[in-house]
Amino acid sequence: MDYRYLDSFFPSMPALVLRFGYPDEALIAEPAPAIIDTGADGSLVPQVLLDQIGAPIVDSKRIRSHWGEWRQVLVFAVDIGIEDLRLPAVEVVGDDQGNEVILGRNILNRLRLLLDGPREELRIMS
């Protein structure tokens, strides 16, 4: 599966279009672009999207942002779909301050990716 980088950012960045759903049920959320962030430990999903699908809370944690401040967050379990690929019961942080989906290493480590910067393409390999 090949994907073009998002050119709405400068420089353009790798991204995937994802669908979300309640664990073990249909993927019900509208497709959402997700920024690939290889430097992020975990993944962030806007809280409104998690509320829309009724994602279950599985934990509460304290995290430090890329700006260095600490805050308490809720962790949710969701199924994530990338075209025909489904990642079940992935833990994501509900982001009540942002509106972008950020894919961190907790999800990226489940995939075999090729980031081709010169071509501005991302490939998921089987």
Helix tally equals: 2
**Pattern of helices and strands:** EEEEHEEEEHEE
Shape: globular
CATH class: Mainly Beta
Detailed description of the structure:
By secondary structure, the chain is mainly β. The chain has one domain: Acid Proteases (Cathepsin D, subunit A, domain 1), CATH 2.40.70. Helices cover 9% and strands 50% of the residues. The protein has two helices and ten strands, in the order E-E-E-E-H-E-E-E-E-H-E-E. Strands 2, 3, 4, 5, 6, 7 and 8 form a seven-stranded mixed beta sheet that branches. Strands 1-10-9 form a three-stranded antiparallel beta sheet, with no helix packed on it. A hairpin with a 5-residue loop joins strand 5 and strand 6. It is globular and about 40 Å long. The termini are close together. The model has no long low-confidence stretch (mean pLDDT 91).
List keywords for this structure.
single chain; 126 residues; mainly beta; Cathepsin D, subunit A, domain 1; seven-stranded mixed β-sheet; three-stranded antiparallel β-sheet; 10 strands; 50% strand; globular
